[in-house]
Amino acid sequence: QVKLVESGGGLVQPGGSLRLSCAASGIFLSIKTVNWYRQAPAKERELVASITDINDAITNYADSVKGRFTISRDNAKNTVYLQMNTLKPEDTAVYYCNVYTYWGQGTLVTVSA
Asked: pLDDT tens, 31-41?
């Protein structure tokens, strides 16, 4: 059974940082493309960042987060991270980890003064 568990969300002031984690069981993240999506209230879910499998480890980012967010993986921990810096109020959303057809439950990030 595949399970993805996100953590690390919370309330942060504009300009602050958070690191989200996506821990997996039942699947090896190192051999899959892993995506981070987010969904803000009344908005569609959007792709924020992705990292391809261990052979290439190519990363891609939405234009809105380029230069501020970094996706990375720790294969030993079977975990993918999303480091988010210089956070803005518009980054407020529920952030989801996705691998193939599997989704985590999401973690809420709120950026507010």
From this structure: 889 999 999 99
